[in-house]
Every structure is written in C-alpha cells, then in structure tokens.
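Structure (tokenized):
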C-alpha cells in the first residue's frame, strides 16, 4: 500500500503525523450527544423482572456490532432514574471501567446503558464506523490515560477530549469499506481456525473422558459403578466422594480496590481472567503482603487444582488449571489440594475429563450468575483407580493428545498472528499511514 503524498503534525499526543489535508477534532465536536447511564438498584424486582427495555453493560461490548442486550430493565426503572437515557440504533459505545476498559461496539437497536458505558451519538463530520475502527486502533493509548488502582478507569471527560484526525466523509467511508473487506477476510480465516480448534478440543476431551472413566486396558473387566452418570467402571476401581480425595479446599477474596497499598506487589492474585492455560505461573494482577494480610484471600503454597466456581462462562465450560507457584485467589475460585490417593496430574485430567459431569451435577444459578456449589462438588462421586494406574493413564493421555495439542498450538498461533495483522492494518489505515483512496475490492491480490 502506498503512502499519502505529504504529511503534517497530527496534534494528537500519540500520533506523530497525518495526511496534510486531514484535520484533528476533539470527540466532543464529532458527536452531538455523549452520555452514559446508571444501574437501577440490584435486588429490586420491579426494576428487572419482565423488563422490556434493553440495558447495555460493558460485558455486551464485543468490538463489533451487537444485535441484542443480555439484560433488560422495566419502564419503572427507566422512569425512576433520570440518568437513564435511550440511545438510538447506530450508537457507538465505549467501555470506561474495569476489565473491559476500551471495548467498543455499535448498537443495532435502541437501548440505554449502565454507568460504565460511554455512548457516542449523532455524528457530525465523522462516520461512526470510522470512529469505531479508530477506537480499536488506539485502545492501548486510551487505556494508558486511565486512573485508579486495581481496576483502571477512564472518564467521560477523557473520551470527550480525545483527538481524532480525519479526512472528509467520503474518504472516511472509503477507509471503512476497505477495512470492512479486509477485516472480513481475516475474521473468516480466524473463524475457520477457531472451528478447527473446537473440533480438536472435542476429540481431546473424548480421549480424556474415556481414559478417566474406563481406563486404558480395553480388556479390563467392568463392574457396576452404582452411580447414574457412569454405568460401569473397571474392576479394582472405586467410586469415591470428592471430599475424601482432598487434603483441603481453599477459597479466596479480593483486597480493597480503593487501597493502592494492596496492589502492584509481588504475590500473584488469580481471577477467572487468568484461567486461560493449564499451568498457572503468573497473573494479570499482583497484590502486596499487606493486601494478603488485610483481606480474606489466602496464600496457596502447595501445587493445587484451581477451579472457577462463579462465573457466567460456567454455562459453557469449566476453567481449571494447576498452579506451580504460590498464589492467592479471588472469591470466584477454589484451590483443591489432593491427598495421597491422587496424583495432582491425574486429578487435573479427571476434572478436565469430567467437566461436563461437574457442571451438570454441581452448578446452579445464584443471583443471576452461574455457580459451582461447594457441597455438591465435595459430594460428587469420582472414579478412582489405584495410584499406579493413575500414572499409566497420565502417560497415555499425554501420548494420545500430543499431536492434537501441537495442532491446537499451531492454529492458535496463526489466529494470534492474524489478530496482530488485523490490528496493525486498522491502525495504519485510520491514522493515514497508508492511502486507500484508490483501492477497489476486485483488484488482483485484494
């Protein structure tokens, strides 16, 4: 892609130059309406039950278009809160708080929002989709403007004062067409790889489930298990309640986000967002010794099975991992420390193999969030082979899934590279580093 003929200083802190004919505008001048919302009091049935008004939270934002809201409020809730405003379809929404900070979306329906959303409505000289791409390209720089302790925040004033360099509307719309086409190709490739990864993970799960419920000897004699979800187990195995397989189960807590002395220390503090790998060796957040001593979280010194017990994602999956370093947990996780009946590696494979069984038998909806009930988990019967056989099963699973793991790793790396390329392409285009004014989708190589 070629560059523009000439450039000039951008006037924006994190961008050195822009095409000479572009101009830089504050967001407050690019949208006629900029607003937010609020959260009606939780636990008030007349505000939520049978609600029909879409109420957007930052968890709905997906860096794309959103077709529906996950939550609704009643007309009474809307009437009782003057800070709730309805925003038309086509509104650009930016997340200002917490873990979702910087996430964006464009609505395809009329809705109100909570206080963590900044709504940009009625564009003047900017195309909303161009602004959407600009926010994606500059997400990291926007987050760097945040303030606060454990959870970073940006304010509505920060959003209003952001400076966006733009060409005229027709040029913006051409850039949008180019990015829609190119990112559509990238997204299609990524979706294909994600589908392949899903199929590979299903194949892997089947191998693990069979190994931890029937063993690895195809000629093994089977006997009734006495449990409804598993009809038979190998002779010599036992069905044992979870609580008799553990030395202890430990929970966690969250040091006050308002106290900076509790955060940015040296002790890993694990939350559900860290549960992306099988092995936990680091965390996104760290707490201090004072944060540990003055909160309900506990230092887990032994290798343990970490399991998410409270999260919206429990509808679909059971995040588990093993910690090899000392960690603390937030209140949404438990650490399971096995006794001598179990190899920790086998317990991990057992949990992974029985994740659907655990979700079916132990999960409930508590205060609108899915939760693994501790008593149900501790009383869940597990198929337990002798310790020597556990070791053989671990070796078998490792061998049988190695090729699958390599393929998953390969495809995931391709996805990561394509995501990086997508972000780079968006950034170069919306900041004027490449000139796409003459681009056509039917050109060779596009």
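Design, position by position:
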């Amino acid at each position: 892609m070629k560059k523009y003929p000439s450039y000039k200083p951008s006037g924006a802190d994190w961008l050195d130059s822009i095409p000479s004919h572009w101009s830089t505008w504050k967001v407050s001048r690019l949208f006629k309406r900029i607003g937010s919302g609020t959260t009606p009091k939780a636990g008030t049935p007349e505000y939520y039950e049978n609600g029909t008004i879409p109420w957007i939270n930052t968890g709905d934002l997906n860096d794309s278009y959103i077709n529906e809201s996950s939550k609704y409020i009643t007309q009474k809730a809307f009437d009782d809160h003057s800070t709730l405003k309805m925003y038309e379809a086509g509104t650009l929404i930016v997340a200002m708080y917490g873990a979702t900070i910087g996430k964006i979306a464009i609505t395809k329906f009329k809705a109100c929002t909570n206080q963590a959303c900044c709504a940009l409505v009625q564009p003047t000289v900017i195309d909303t989709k161009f602004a959407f791409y600009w926010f994606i390209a500059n997400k990291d720089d926007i987050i760097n403007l945040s303030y606060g302790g454990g959870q970073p925040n940006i304010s509505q004033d920060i959003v209003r004062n952001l400076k966006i360099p733009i060409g005229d509307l027709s040029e913006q719309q051409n850039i949008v067409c180019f990015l829609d086409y190119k990112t559509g190709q990238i997204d299609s490739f990524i979706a294909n790889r994600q589908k392949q990864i899903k199929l590979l993970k299903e194949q892997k799960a089947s191998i693990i489930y069979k190994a931890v419920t029937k063993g690895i000897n195809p000629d093994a004699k089977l006997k009734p298990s006495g449990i409804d979800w598993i009809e038979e187990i190998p002779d010599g195995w036992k069905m044992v309640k979870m609580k008799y397989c553990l030395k202890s189960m430990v929970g966690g807590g969250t040091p006050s986000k308002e106290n900076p002395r509790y955060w940015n220390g040296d002790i890993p503090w694990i939350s559900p967002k860290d549960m992306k790998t099988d092995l936990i060796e680091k965390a996104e957040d760290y707490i201090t010794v004072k944060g540990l001593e003055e909160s309900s979280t506990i230092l887990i010194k032994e290798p343990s099975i970490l399991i998410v017990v409270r999260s919206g994602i429990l509808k679909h999956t059971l995040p588990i991992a093993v910690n090899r370093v000392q960690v603390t947990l937030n209140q949404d996780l438990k650490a399971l420390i096995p006794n001598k009946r179990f190899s920790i590696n086998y317990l991990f494979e057992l949990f992974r193999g029985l994740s659907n069984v655990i979700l079916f038998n132990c999960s409930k909806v508590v205060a609108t969030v899915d939760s693994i009930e501790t008593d149900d988990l501790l009383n869940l019967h597990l198929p337990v082979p002798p310790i020597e056989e556990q070791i053989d099963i671990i070796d078998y699973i490792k061998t049988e899934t190695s090729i699958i793991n390599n393929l998953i790793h390969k495809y995931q790396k391709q996805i990561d590279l394509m995501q990086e390329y997508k972000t780079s392409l968006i950034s170069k285009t919306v900041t004027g580093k490449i000139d796409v004014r003459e681009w056509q989708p039917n050109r060779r190589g596009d």
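Reviewer-requested clarification: Residues 169-214 form the longest helix (46 residues). The CA atoms of residues 308 and 333 lie 4 Å apart.
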